[in-house]
Amino acid sequence: MAYICDNCGKAIVYGRQSTHGRGVAGKRWKKRAQKTLKIFKPNLQKIAVVMDGKRTQMKLCASCISRFRKDGKIKKISLP
C-alpha cells in the first residue's frame, strides 16, 4: 500500500541530514561530517469520511483531517 494521502497527495520525502551540526570546536568538521538520508513521513491515519451521503474509508494526513472536520465531512473520528 502506498504511503500517500488520498486527498492532497502528500507522500514520503527524502532529505539530507548532517550528523555533526553543533559544536564550537569543530569548525571544519561541519564540512567533513557525513550527510545521511532522512525520511520525512506524513502523519497518515485511516478515517471514515461521509462523502455524498456515503461512508468511505480514506487515508488522510493530519492537516486534511482538520480541514475535513471544519467542512463537516467528519462527524466523529473513529480510528480502526
Word description of this protein:
The chain is α+β, with helices and mostly antiparallel strands and 80 residues long. Helix content is 18%, strand content 35%. It has one domain (13-71). It has two helices and four strands, in the order E-H-E-E-E-H. The strands form two sheets. A two-stranded antiparallel ribbon has the order 1-2. Strands 3-4 form a two-stranded antiparallel ribbon. The mean pLDDT is 80. One of its GO terms (molecular function) is structural constituent of ribosome. One of its GO terms (cellular component) is ribonucleoprotein complex. Keywords: Ribonucleoprotein, Ribosomal protein.
Summarize the structure.
It comes from Candidatus Woesebacteria bacterium RIFOXYD1_FULL_43_18. The protein is of the alpha+beta class and 80 residues long.
